[in-house]
Design brief:
This protein is of the alpha+beta class. It folds into three domains: 110 residues, no CATH class; 58 residues, Wheat Germ Agglutinin (Isolectin 2), domain 1, CATH 3.30.60.60; 212 residues, Gcn5-related N-acetyltransferase (GNAT) (Aminopeptidase, 3-Layer(aba) Sandwich). It is 37% helix and 15% strand. The protein is built from 13 helices and 15 strands. It has a five-stranded antiparallel β-sheet, with helices on both faces. A hairpin with a 2-residue loop joins β1 and β2. The longest helix is centred in the first third of the chain and has 28 residues. The relative contact order is 0.06.
Length: 531
């Protein structure tokens, strides 16, 4: 850590002193009258200077939860005269503004007593602070007991439902689930249409009083049901961070990376990634969006960008349509780039374990080109020789490109490569939450498209698998989820549900103008040898 530069006129003890106080340290006792008059004049002048600096300070009116800044004496205090310093509450830095890569920090005093989960006596991060969430430690414990009780009731009801189900392939919702769905719909209907004038004034007063040092008031902004779901998610995330701290992945003195500067975006991270300790403890990293090198400051990044000659990922461009391109990168030939890509992906993926052993993998990186270069959209990796025919080992869409159709394009491209290889593929398990949602949606669209174009009377799961390159297990699970697979008179039947097909056709008509589809004619690729 660089040493803090000592301001002129400040002593090593932290007490204020004037610039002329050094001339008064070695005076004799015979000149005590003169020195006392000079020290009095110096004290008054330094007091006026400190008062003017406080008036001009931009954080002079900052309120910190009932605590006030201690008034420093303008008289030098020797080490023998110092009183023992009282123990101060734990301080958390809160970022207020950012300009040209620099941060101004606002330090707010929080007591470290209590935890948002209600299961711990102390917290070590602001995400677990009850006071930041406008709660007390006792309220957090009461909410934890309520959550545990709801979990026990849910587990009991699930066991009862499993006992009542005689057919293992029966996927229809139970009566309890239907009643719960109706209850949720009624609770969401009770949501207020808008805030009253008094509530708006209360929220504005809270915002002006505490600023970013406390969470905004969330009551009446949505239904009570959705607010309760949000509170549960907050408690669960705080509990996950506490587990990481206890496992040693996050220590009390070092924080995980919270934000990264990536091109023209500033991204909030979701999970811990094993960057070197000297970088991880900074809390914020600066990355080159082309070579993925990570740096400590905006100045280093600016100098790097002036010298970096990369404008696209290394490797061969095997697909291009419009501004979207896909590059095939060999982990053995471009080891550093692939390692940096894996470390970046771990910031947004929970179930990722591969960071440095990238040689047995191929990486397919999707980019969007403009006049400055090819910007990273996402990527997926696959083993060069997969024993279980996995066509995807890890898949990621960058947060700034999510919910725009790029995730399905990556999945579709992985199956397009499997078709060229004349293989049946499947993603490696376990899938992340967002990955599972994307794959289920993709499999649903593939099956509905196939059934819409199918004109025969008898259908085969094997034929569907060979034509779509989707694993039969994934096809069966998707048909079961859509309630399109039934067992009747000793035979398995596939029901062609026209309502789902019509719904899919309507969605396709709305997306007809979108170019978020993969064109097989734009692929220029041959399978690598040995695969």
């Amino acid at each position: 850590m660089p040493r803090r530069k000592r301001n002129a006129g400040s002593s090593s003890d932290g007490t204020e002193d004037s610039d002329f106080s050094t001339d008064l340290e070695h005076t004799d006792s015979s000149e005590s009258d003169g020195t006392s008059r000079r020290s009095a004049r110096v004290t008054r002048s330094s007091a006026r200077l400190s008062q003017s600096s406080q008036d001009s300070s931009p954080v002079r009116n900052l309120q910190s939860f009932g605590t006030e800044e201690p008034a420093y004496s303008t008289r030098r205090v020797t080490r023998s005269q110092q009183q023992p310093t009282p123990v101060t509450p734990k301080k958390y830095p809160l970022r207020q503004t950012r300009s040209s890569g620099s941060e101004t920090e606002q330090v707010v005093d929080f007591s470290d007593r209590g935890h948002l989960t209600g299961k711990h006596e102390r917290h070590f991060s602001i995400s677990g602070c009850p006071l930041y969430h406008n709660l007390s430690a006792d309220e957090c414990k009461v909410r934890a007991q309520s959550r545990d009780k709801q979990i026990e009731e849910r587990m009991l009801s699930h066991r009862q439902d499993d006992n009542n189900r005689h057919a293992t392939r029966h996927q229809a919702p139970t009566e309890r689930q239907l009643r719960y769905k109706e209850k949720v719909a009624e609770l969401r209907k009770k949501r207020n249409s808008g805030l009253s004038k008094e509530q708006k004034e209360k929220y504005m007063e809270h915002r002006q009083t505490y600023g970013n040092t406390r969470e905004p008031l969330l009551e009446n902004l949505t239904s009570e049901y959705d607010l309760d779901l949000f509170r549960r998610a907050q408690a669960r995330a705080s509990e996950d961070l506490e587990k990481l701290r206890l496992q040693g992945q996050i220590t009390e003195g070092s924080n995980m990376i919270k934000t990264i500067a990536f091109g023209r975006y500033e991204l909030d991270t979701w999970y811990h990634s094993p960057y070197p300790e000297e970088y991880a403890r900074l809390g914020r990293l600066y990355m080159c969006e082309f070579c993925l090198k990570y740096m400590k400051s905006q100045t280093i990044l600016r100098r790097h960008m002036a010298k970096c000659v990369w404008k696209h990922p290394p490797g061969d461009e095997i697909y291009r349509k419009g501004s979207v391109s896909v590059f095939e990168v060999d982990g053995k030939k471009n080891k550093i780039y692939c390692q940096n890509l894996c470390l970046l992906a771990k910031l947004f993926l929970d179930h990722k374990t591969l960071y440095y052993d990238v040689e047995p993998f191929l990486f397919y990186v999707m980019t969007e080109a403009d006049n400055t270069g090819c910007h990273l959209i996402g990527y997926f990796s696959k083993e060069k020789n997969s024993f279980l025919n996995y066509n995807v080992s890890c898949i990621l869409t960058m947060p700034q490109y999510m919910r725009q159709g790029y995730g399905k394009m990556l999945i579709d491209f992985s199956y397009l490569l499997s078709k060229v290889e004349e293989k049946v593929g499947s993603p490696e398990r376990p899938l992340s939450d967002l990955g599972l949602i994307s794959y289920r949606s993709y499999w649903k669209e593939v099956l509905l498209r196939y059934l819409h174009n199918f004109q025969g009377k008898e259908i085969s799961i094997k034929e569907i698998s060979q034509e779509t390159a989707v694993n039969p297990v994934d096809i069966v699970s998707t048909l079961q989820a859509l309630q399109m697979l039934k067992y009747w008179k000793g035979k398995h039947l596939v029901l062609k549900r026209q309502d789902l097909i019509d719904e899919w056709i309507a969605k396709e008509a709305k997306r007809s103008n979108s170019n978020k589809t993969m064109d097989p004619s734009c692929l220029k690729w041959t399978p690598p040898k040995g695969t």
